[in-house]
């Protein structure tokens, strides 16, 4: 029985599967997107996302750890130099899997796996949605120009005007004793 064993072995031995995932991860980091079967894409996502998370911390130890998985110096340098800078503020979810249909030869379901921050098509779509920041309630400028605001009772306006000089007079009274005490100190 295989209760609780969630790793997809992909019909390969352990060493073959690890080598294949390392090669696919290197290709993904190098080319930013690859086309593969859906099962391999899902296995690759589980394999490569912790590696990308590890690349956010640029230390010798993390570089050696990532190199032990990828076994390619050029890919490790690209990962720590370019990819880590782009995903620095992203809390996870660095890859996207897009289903493409079935392969003609064996009818295997195909998928495109890509790094999220390198897709310019989706970024332009996100920029368009980010521009709209208004809410339903409207702004204060619109409320001031509305007919309801213009038809406000004049009594309320008169109270506000009458209250303003009283507040100014109280403020002057508070300042006056302070000025007198400073003049006395100078003498």
What does this structure look like?
Helix content is 62%, strand content 11%. With 187 residues, it is mainly alpha-helical. It folds into two domains: 14-120, 50s Ribosomal Protein L17, Chain: A; 140-180. A three-stranded antiparallel sheet has the order 1-3-2. β2 and β3 (109-115) form a beta hairpin. α1 crosses α2 and α3 crosses α4. The longest helix has 33 residues, at 154-186. The chain is extended and about 75 Å long.
Explain the layout of strands and helices.
Blueprint: H1 14-31, E1 33-37, H2 38-55, H3 60-70, H4 73-86, E2 95-102, E3 109-115, H5 120-131, H6 140-145, H7 147-150, H8 154-186
Antiparallel strand pairs: 1-3, 2-3
Helix pairs in contact: 1-2, 1-4, 3-4
């Amino acid at each position: 029985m295989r209760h609780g064993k969630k790793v997809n072995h992909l019909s390969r031995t352990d060493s073959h599967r690890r080598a294949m995932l390392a090669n696919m991860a290197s290709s993904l980091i190098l080319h930013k997107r690859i086309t593969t079967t859906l099962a391999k894409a899902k296995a690759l996502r589980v394999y490569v996302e912790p590696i990308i998370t590890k690349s956010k911390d640029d230390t010798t130890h993390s570089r050696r750890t990532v190199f032990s998985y990828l076994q390619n110096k050029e890919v490790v340098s690209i990962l720590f130099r370019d990819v880590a800078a782009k995903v620095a503020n992203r809390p996870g979810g660095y890859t996207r899997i897009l289903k493409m249909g079935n392969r003609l030869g064996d009818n295997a379901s195909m998928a495109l796996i890509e790094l999220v921050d390198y897709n310019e098509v989706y970024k332009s779509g996100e920029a368009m949605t980010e521009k709209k920041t208004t809410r339903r309630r409207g702004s204060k400028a619109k409320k001031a120009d509305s007919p309801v605001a213009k038809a406000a009772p004049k009594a309320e306006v008169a109270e506000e005007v009458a209250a303003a000089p009283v507040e100014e007079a109280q403020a002057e009274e508070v300042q006056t004793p302070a000025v007198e005490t400073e003049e006395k100190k100078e003498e």
